[in-house]
Design goal:
Structural class: alpha/beta
Order of helices and strands: EHEHHHEHEHEHEHEEHHEEEHEH
Radius of gyration: 21 Å
Number of strands: 12
Shape: globular
Low-confidence stretches: none
Distance between the termini: 49 Å
Strand content: 15-25%
Largest sheet: 8 strands, mixed
Length: about 450
């Protein structure tokens, strides 16, 4: 039976060198040459907890209950978590570092226990400020390697296959205080759709410093896996939760928000070292692992197996993907469906078709936009984009007569998802429950100390 090593970062999108960006991730790039690289992978919800809950249950956020952030009182049905499924099927399960499906993601113990991990390996982080947490990632990489070495020493009679989750704080904000000396801010051009300015370059240099640290941790763990003779019997999955924490990226349904890096090394697979252009979703990971591990698939899974692609196939495994937003810090209900050619986005809070400022992380880049009129920027009630001619999703075609037939088909696709998955959005706005911490949609910052900024 094969092991599974799941390595994940925070808020990285596809801003990594295997996806064509000039960023300092040589270890991830080397891994990409030995793995299947999915170039068109998408999360099911472009905020931290909903995205992770969706991938690790194989269901959409509204189905598993994770409508917002775990540390803000939202919760999921952990009985559907991949870890519990593996526990029932004879796997040793261990967590080191971040999880974001239960409670506060920097809590070392409680989340692992509630999810059902058999072991918790995470180092204490209480002495760190958020700007220093990449150092905590580095300590946790060491703990992962120690655990792998100890497994190698175990007698065969005690060995069971393992699922090990190594989660990093990087590349979450806040970024390290000091820019890495090898990174020049003036050459750090931020990715689309962020304009190139002194402020945004400096901000992006912080991301580069953080991602360089994450890449070093990744490389350390992969080297250890190989040195301990586990590489040929371990499926390695690398991904992130959603797009980077910039305006018009994280917590949006643009590709810059839902597009994610997804790479898998499966021992002996024909897909290793290949780039896959087919559409795939995070919800496809659970059924894929079940098939690779010869485990029965739970009947609640929404995804499809990617094994045909991993075995070298070239036919699409799905015709579209679905993603949703409910709550991040404020309520911003939206849904999208994306095909290879088109994207359709629908915003359901029609009484407030403006940018929800608290749903944008604080940063120099946000400040740059705020100084140039971000407050009051309007959103479309519905939007249709032709991704061949408009990959940046800036020309809304929903009211263009020549796209009427396309619009109707995309509306129907979205309606089918909502009906089949019993999406509560069909019944109207989601009422805020006791215990949920929710900013008012007019609030400008998630960390406001004003009680009037919360529902």
């Amino acid at each position: 039976m094969r092991n599974v090593l799941y390595i994940h970062t925070h808020d990285s999108g596809r801003i990594l060198s295997p996806y064509g960006y000039k960023v300092p991730t040589p270890n991830l790039e080397a891994f990409a040459k030995e793995a299947a690289v999915f170039r068109n992978a998408y999360c099911a919800g472009p905020t931290c907890s909903p995205s992770r809950a969706a991938m690790l249950t194989g269901t959409y956020p509204h189905q598993t209950g994770m409508l917002g952030l775990a540390q803000r009182g939202f919760s999921m049905d952990c009985r559907r978590h991949l870890v519990q499924h593996l526990n029932r099927n004879g796997y040793d399960t261990a967590l080191c570092g971040i999880q974001h499906e239960v409670g506060w993601y920097l809590d070392r113990v409680q989340g692992a226990k509630q999810i059902g991990y058999g072991e918790e390996l995470t180092r204490d982080n209480s002495g760190y400020r958020q700007e220093e947490l990449v150092k905590w990632d580095q300590e946790n990489a060491g703990e992962v390697c120690t655990w792998l070495r100890d497994r190698k020493k175990m007698g065969n009679e005690k060995k069971r296959p393992f699922f090990l989750s190594y989660g990093m704080y990087a590349t979450h904000r806040r970024f390290p205080d000091e820019i890495d000396p090898e990174i020049c801010p003036e050459f750090a051009v931020p990715p689309y759709p962020i304009p190139d300015s002194k402020e945004t370059r400096r901000d992006f240099a912080g991301f580069l410093t953080s991602v360089k640290s994450a890449d070093g941790c990744f490389g350390q763990v992969i080297r250890c896996l190989k040195e301990e003779g586990l590489w040929e019997n371990t499926i390695v999955l690398f991904t992130t939760d959603h797009g980077i924490a910039n305006p018009f990226s994280k917590c949006t349904l643009f590709d810059s928000g839902i597009g994610v890096a997804l790479m898998m090394h499966v021992p002996g697979a024909k897909g290793n070292g290949r780039v896959m252009d087919q559409l795939v979703s995070h919800v496809d990971v659970f059924p894929t692992l079940c098939e690779l591990l010869n485990l029965e698939k739970p009947d609640y899974l929404e995804g499809v197996s990617l094994v045909p692609l991993l075995e070298g196939g070239e036919e699409p495994v799905r015709s579209d993907i679905f993603a949703e937003i409910n709550f991040h810090t404020s309520y911003e209900p939206a849904r999208c469906v994306r095909t290879e050619r088109y994207k359709y986005i629908c915003y359901y809070d029609t009484s407030y078709l403006q940018t929800n400022l608290s749903n944008i992380d604080e940063s120099q880049t946000k400040d740059y936009f705020m100084e140039r009129g971000l407050k009051g920027r309007e959103k479309y009630e519905e939007a249709l984009y032709d991704l061949v001619y408009d990959p940046g999703e800036r020309r809304n075609l929903a009211k263009e007569p020549e796209y009427k037939a396309v619009l109707e088909k995309m509306r129907d696709r979205l309606k089918e998802y909502e009906e089949r998955t019993e999406d509560p959005i069909r019944s109207g706005p989601v009422a805020v429950r006791s215990g949920w911490k929710v900013n008012r949609r007019e609030c400008q910052t998630a960390s406001s100390k004003n009680p009037e900024d919360y529902i």
